């Protein structure tokens, strides 16, 4: 159920969307050690976004995952910021990342929640 949302003021050409989503999906799966079949990536490009009063290329990432290990977030940040720079041209210093781990009963899928005993 890992979910990565990427909000950016950069325009991603239609021809590059699938590759970008695929690279981010693979990276999240590898970082978290979870099957990529459970990873969801949302791309919100061309959005009105500024950082420090500037509309130069910038990005906000939101990484949501059950059991997200807090001790690993600095490593995740390095990898995700480097990807934003490489794939979008957004300098690492212009990327914010919101890491979240919801309680299992507050994240739903397939007609239930992840606290449901049928989901082990």
UniProtKB/TrEMBL annotation:
Protein's name according to its UniProt entry: L-dopachrome isomerase
EC top class, as a word: isomerase
Record SUPFAM superfamilies: Tautomerase/MIF (SSF55331)
Protein's cellular compartments: Secreted
Keywords attached to this entry: Cytokine, Isomerase, Secreted
InterPro entries: Macrophage_inhib_fac, Tautomerase/MIF_sf
Catalytic function, reaction form: 3-phenylpyruvate = enol-phenylpyruvate; L-dopachrome = 5,6-dihydroxyindole-2-carboxylate
EC number: 5.3.2.1, 5.3.3.12
């Amino acid at each position: 159920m890992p979910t990565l949302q990427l909000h950016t003021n950069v325009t991603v050409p239609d021809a590059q969307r699938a590759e970008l989503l695929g690279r981010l999906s693979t990276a999240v799966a590898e970082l978290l050690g979870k099957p990529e079949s459970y990873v969801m990536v949302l791309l919100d490009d061309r959005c009105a976004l500024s950082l420090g009063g500037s509309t130069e290329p910038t990005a906000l990432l939101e990484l949501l995952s059950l059991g997200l290990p807090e001790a690993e977030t600095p490593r995740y940040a390095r990898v995700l910021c480097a990807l934003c720079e490489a794939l979008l041209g957004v300098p690492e210093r212009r990327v914010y990342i919101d890491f979240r781990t919801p309680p299992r009963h507050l994240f739903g899928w397939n007609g239930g929640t992840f606290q449901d005993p049928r989901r082990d």
